[in-house]
Amino acid sequence: MVTHGRIPSYRFVIPSTVYNPFLPENKGFCSRETPRYFSNDIQPEGCLPAGMFDIGRTKIGSPHIYLSGVHFYQSPPQIYQNFTGFRHPDNSDATYIDIEPYTGVVVSAFGASQINVGMISGNSYLLNEMPSMIVPVLWMNELINLDGETRKDLEKVVLLPRGVSCDFNLLKC
Q: pTM for the full model?
C-alpha cells in the first residue's frame, strides 16, 4: 500500500517472472534465430537473457532490437557489468501503476523502458575484436500523476464515510 496525499493505493509492478526465459510458460518468446550473447546459465539456447523482450524479430534478417527495463532492470548483472559508468538497477527503475482500490482510479503510473541493440562479433576487420553483446541505445521514463485539484476531489470521495453518498460530479458538497 502506498499513499498519494491522503489517498491510499495499491501498487502493481511487473513481476520478474514475466521475462524469465527459464520458465516453461515463457518458451513461446524464444526463437532459434536468437543470437548467443551469454553462457547457458544466463541465456538459455534460443532465448534472450532474463529481463529482455525481442521487438525487432519481425522478419529474418531484421536488426536485433530488444526492449528491457531501464539499466537492465530484472536482468542478470553479467549484462550490465561491462559498461563503464552504468549504475546498477534498483527499485526506482520498476514500472508500476498505483490504483485507489475503492474507486479503481489510477492515481499514479510510471513506465521505464530501454531500447537495446544486439551486436554480433564478426569476421570483418571492424568487428573481429568486439565480443557479441547487448548495447543500450536509449531509455524512456513516463510518469503520470493526478493534478492537485483532481487529487483533492478524489480525496473527498475516498475519505468520506462509506455510508455517505456524494455525486462525483458535485464534489463541492
A: 0.81
Tally the domains of the chain.
Answer: 1
> pLDDT of 71-103, one tens digit each?
999 999 999 887 888 888 999 999 999 999 999
Distances, alpha carbon 138 to alpha carbons 3, 87, 114, 115, in Å: 31, 14, 6, 5
Q: For residue 37, which of 136, 137, 133 has the smallest C-alpha distance?
A: 133
Q: CA torsion 53→58→62→63, rounded to 10°? A: -20
User: If you count them, how many residues does the chain have?
Assistant: 173
C-alpha torsion sign, points 143, 149, 151, 154 = negative
Quick count: other Cβ atoms within 10 Å of Cβ 52? 26
